[in-house]
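anyone else get weird line breaks when pasting these?? whatever heres mine. first is seq + tokens for prot A
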Amino acid sequence: MRIFFYAFAISLLSLNGYAKIIKYQLLNSQKEIFSFKEVCADNGVTDAPLIEVKTASSLDCMTKETPIRSFCLKKMKNNSSFIRARYDLAKNEIYCQSADRVILKYQCSKKTMGYCQNDQIGCDRLRNILAQNLSLIGHSIHEEVLGEKTLSCYFSSSSYVDSKLND
């Protein structure tokens, strides 16, 4: 199942195969699981006989579009560690995932330089996809061999930072 999430994230951020996530590490990761029917019922569509995935970020509940991120944010409103919402087609389930920290390394390319022109802006854009409620605590761009660049982003929940400061 974890492979599905990584493959989805890589396909989401890779444009025509020119860029990719080369590291996506989660610390203290947890997930809450909800059925497609629960998600639709929460959006006012009960007993939906046909529920389909409309886009990478929403379900079609009998012609009513239901964003899965909004659902997870609602269910995890008191969770400052929420990072992303994903679905599993094989099980017809939504995963609302949280983590205390996320370490992300993104290989830049000429086609995806929008993420790599400015490391803070690039990391903020990636945070919206892969580390929603976490704070950006570190960012850098490293130039590798042959001029390739790697964007590094470090995210942390406020509760994790607070606990480390009190140690």
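and prot B, same format (seq, then tokens)
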Amino acid sequence: MMRGDEHMCLKNSCYIICLIILLGLIGACSNNDINYEKTISTDIEFVQEKFPNIKNVESVIFSYLVKDDDRSIGLAPKEFSGIICIGPEFAKSISEKYKWKKCKQPVDALFFEKGEYHFLYNENFEEKYRNSLIGTFYYDKEKQVIYFTGEY
């Protein structure tokens, strides 16, 4: 019989594998006018560098897409989205510290099966943790995951 933590990790691993497959399929469809340099990764250190205030990171999966066309001057925009699986200590901390509001499933999160996640939103959390991301954070208390999407 699996303990609750082992079961949660197994479920999160299944979600991460499904996300990798879906992001790979999305990456196969590209626009010929723009050069896409897409990275799909599970590099925890990279995410911790981007979001240093998010603690207790157990695993991550993210897509990092650099869009570059002939008209770009300077740094090309980078789309950055993914899932951060957090440990119970940090989950408890943010659950108690912030008043989360239920929200609809974000359009960018269509790779999640409907009804699987219960997205919550809090503007104060987002302001504190997003660092230089121009985007949004969503939280699922039950799954102990933070979903993020935006641009650098």
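btw re prot B: DSSP finds four helices and seven strands in the chain. The first strand starts at residue 35 and ends at 41.
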